[in-house]
Amino acid sequence: MRQYAMRKGKTAAEVKDLEAEDTLYGLVYGDELYCDDVNKVSFILKTYQDHLDSVLVFPNLKAGTWSGRGETALFGDLGVKDITKAHAIDVLLKYLQADKQDTIAFGDAKVDIPMLDYCEIGVAMGNGGPDSLAMANMVTDDVEEDGLFNAFKALK
């Protein structure tokens, strides 16, 4: 959890005494840690092998990894198979009766690439991984340096 917080911009001194429960509470935006409507489970990786094992143990789920910044996997997750961020946007567009040409996606990781590719404009955050930076229509500043604001301003 300390590594994650440091990848989100905290210093080693700021996270030295960080307790996992404090960080987890912040990650769920002040809500309860337990709920009965789960569609995705995230877990801390001790090693990358934990992710590889999750792929074998849960073959009917979609296994992925994520981190705070960069491409080093710190966390694993399990979700509904065949559901991507692009699929979710497509479902939302149909529900809203909106047009794909009016879409903008923001992302910073490999998991965001289908969404960045699907939307009319795919914006990679400056702190993104090399794959998302390479394929995006536009690269904005780091998320910690007002990247969203600056992209909104540039795109009007």
**Amino- and carboxy-terminal Cα gap:** 36 Å
Structural class: alpha/beta
How many runs of DSSP E, i.e. beta strands? Answer: 6
Q: How many helical stretches?
A: 8
**Radius of gyration (Å):** 17 Å
Strand order of the largest sheet: 1-3-2
Identify the overall geometry: globular
Q: How would you sum up this structure, described in words?
A:
39% of the residues lie in helices and 17% in strands. It is built from eight helices and six strands, in the order αααβαββαβαβαβα. The longest helix is centred in the middle third of the chain and has 12 residues, at 85-96. The protein starts with a helix and ends with a helix.
Describe what is shown at a glance.
This protein has 156 residues and is an alpha/beta fold. It has 8 helices and 6 strands, in the order αααβαββαβαβαβα. The longest helix is centred in the middle third of the chain and has 12 residues, at 85-96.
List the SSEs and their pairings.
Elements: H1 2-7, H2 12-15, H3 20-27, E1 40-44, H4 48-57, E2 61-66, E3 75-80, H5 85-96, E4 104-107, H6 113-118, E5 121-124, H7 130-135, E6 138-139, H8 147-155
Parallel strand pairs: 4-5, 5-6
Antiparallel strand pairs: 1-3, 2-3
Please supply descriptive tags for the structure shown above.
three-stranded parallel β-sheet, 156 residues, globular, 8 helices, three-stranded antiparallel β-sheet, alpha/beta
